[in-house]
Amino acid sequence: LQWLGIVMLFVIIGVSMGVVFPPNDSVVRLKWLQLIQSVGCLLVPALFVAYLWTRRPMEWLRLSCKTAKAVPLGRVCVLSVVLMLVAMPGINLLNHLNQQLVLPACLAGIEAWMKQAEEAAEALLERFLAADTLWGLLINIGLMALVPALGEEMTFRGVLLNLFTNEQT
């Protein structure tokens, strides 16, 4: 319950930032919101409950070498590549079907709004991903890959897995 409360606190902070700072197309603002969301909803709550609930938080979050288990990397990598290759045609088919979506005439306004919103989101995403410098690229990698990945691992493998298996250290 404490963990969920902390997550909700940061969700409220993120939403209030959207109210205090009205929406605009500022890429810098969006990157800050992405960072606050990743750190606030994933990293901070996981670290907080780990330090609050256990004596060895890094082991409880499965971040120490003691809790790391040997993984048959060769087999896992091959299976991951095969899974991605098998899934791609299905993903492409769903994308194609989504683009072909035509709503009834009575919903033409909604269809136009959906297409316009999708085009606006695509343009904003292109601006968000644009990086003219090495620092811009590193910031994008950190914001969209490293921080969320670490936060998700700590939250799901660390906190939730321990909660569901009742493991305590």
Distance between the termini: 19 Å
Helix percent band: over 70%
Radius of gyration: 21 Å
Rounded mean pLDDT score: 82
Largest sheet: none
Number of strands: 0
Question: Short description, anyone?
Answer:
By secondary structure, the chain is mainly alpha-helical.
How would you describe this protein?
This protein has about 170 residues and is mostly helical. Helix content is about 80%, strand content about 0%. It contains six helices and no strands. The protein has helices at about 1-20, 25-55, 55-60, 75-100, 110-130, 135-165. Helix 1 runs antiparallel to helix 2 (about 25-55) and helix 2 packs parallel to helix 6 (about 135-165). The longest helix is centred in the C-terminal third of the chain and has 32 residues, at about 135-165. It is globular and about 60 Å long. The mean pLDDT is about 80.
Feature tags:
about 170 residues; mainly alpha; 6 helices
How would the blueprint of this fold be written?
Layout: H1 2-20, H2 27-53, H3 57-60, H4 73-99, H5 108-129, H6 134-165
Helix pairs in contact: 1-2, 2-6
